[in-house]
Design a protein that fits this description.
By secondary structure, the protein is mostly helical. The chain has helices at residues 3-13, 34-48, 54-59, 63-70. InterPro entries: ACP-like_sf, PP-bd_ACP.
Length: 76
C-alpha cells in the first residue's frame, strides 16, 4: 500500500476532518478518544494483520509511529 493511500484510508476510518500527514500527532486530533483508538486498532488488524494493544496505543503518537509499528516494508 502506498503511504498516501494509507493516510487517506486512515483519515476516513478515524472520521477526522483534518488532512493527515505522517507528522500528524493523533492524540492532538479533536476527534481522538478511546473509540477512535479502537477504530485504529481494528483498521490496522484488518488491513495489515498486525495487532495493536492498548499499551501500543499509549506509545504511538504520530501517524509515522503507526507506520513504523506496522512495518515500513508493508508500504511502497
Amino acid at each position: 500500500m502506498e503511504k498516501q493511500e494509507f493516510l487517506k484510508n486512515l483519515q476516513e476510518v478515524l472520521e477526522v476532518e483534518q488532512t493527515l500527514t505522517v507528522e500528524t500527532n493523533l492524540k492532538d486530533l479533536d476527534e481522538w478518544d478511546s473509540m477512535t483508538a479502537m477504530l485504529l486498532i481494528g483498521y490496522v488488524s484488518d488491513e495489515f494483520g498486525v495487532t495493536l494493544t492498548g499499551d501500543n496505543i499509549g506509545e504511538i503518537s504520530t501517524v509515522q509511529s503507526v507506520i513504523d509499528f506496522i512495518g515500513e516494508s508493508k508500504f511502497s
